[in-house]
Write a structure and sequence with these properties.
319 residues, alpha/beta, Rossmann fold, 2 domains, 8-stranded mixed beta sheet, 4-stranded antiparallel beta sheet, 23% strand, globular, binds adenosine-5'-triphosphate, binds magnesium ion
Length: 319
Amino acid sequence: MDRPLIETKNLCKYFKTHRGMLHAVEDVNMKIFEGKTLGVVGESGCGKSTLGRTVLRLHQATSGEVLFEGENILKYSRQQMNRIHRNMQMIFQDPYSSLDPRMSIRALITEPLTVLSGKEKESSKEMDDRVSRIMEMCGLPRHYSNLYPHELDGGMRQRVGLARAMILDPKFIVCDEPVSALDVSIQAQILNLLMDLQDRHGLSYMFITHDLAVVKHISDEIMVMYMGQVVEYAPSAELFRNHVHPYTRALLNSIPTIDLSRRNRERVTITGEVSSPINPAPGCRFAPRCPFATEECKQKHELKEISPGHFASCTKGVN
Ligand SMILES: Nc1ncnc2c1ncn2[C@@H]1O[C@H](COP(=O)(O)OP(=O)(O)OP(=O)(O)O)[C@@H](O)[C@H]1O
Ligand SMILES: [Mg+2]
């Protein structure tokens, strides 16, 4: 299939704040094909979650388009949106906060269905079978259905979060840092489960993370964001082998010590003043921190295809 499952065109999301317009997502163009994963990386606050939420219409876009199977869903009415809503799901870093502690695992897994149909919980044989199938698919032992979220560890709770998405039989899942809160050994289990589900169901993922090691493993393509802007976008292997944007190079050269979470932000070996995403100047937002920046960088930011499928807004300093 040569049509992407999901695509954005010049997608922007700005937030009105008391200090001005915060440009959280600026002019993002991306494509995700059926059965593929786009990794979205960048440090805390660069707009990853906002992008994911805007694609799913959990935020209202400021401008641009989101195409799902070729149709601009930003123009969809509520009824049209309801019709395709189940195709597009999201899982989060901390499923605990989105799981009602008073509901059993079974009730939590069936909840998205009852919310969608508007009907009260069915307790049919059919539903029982479906829940069992989904639990098995997500690696949840059958007897867990009568347990409550606090009785599960983080990995199992993430499996419940995934089961809640999978029960709707989606085509596309935004995975927003789904393993960031987990121990490394558990991370690998969840990543393997995600890849296994993808293989079996042809799922497409937008996989958001600040952890480059994770994104390398799971992504077909990788998009690097800096303060709302996409600075580089390439097939995964190409990005790791031949990254060109000064920001991407700073990120990748600092591997493996780099950790872009808020807590460890200072470890990134980038110096200089950080600009602000509020009423930003035109041009590249990395320019104030970039050793190669020229006057031109402050005027213009534009992705160019530097080799087939490899886009970057800058190649300065590459020899
Ligand atoms: N509802 C909101 N209102 C105003 N500003 C917001 C809102 N949500 C996010 N922002 C701002 O938009 C920018 C992008 O935030 P976002 O949460 O998308 O970043 P992120 O890359 O997901 O970061 P993290 O890695 O910490 O999750 C930040 O400057 C943030 O403060
Ligand atoms: Mg986020």
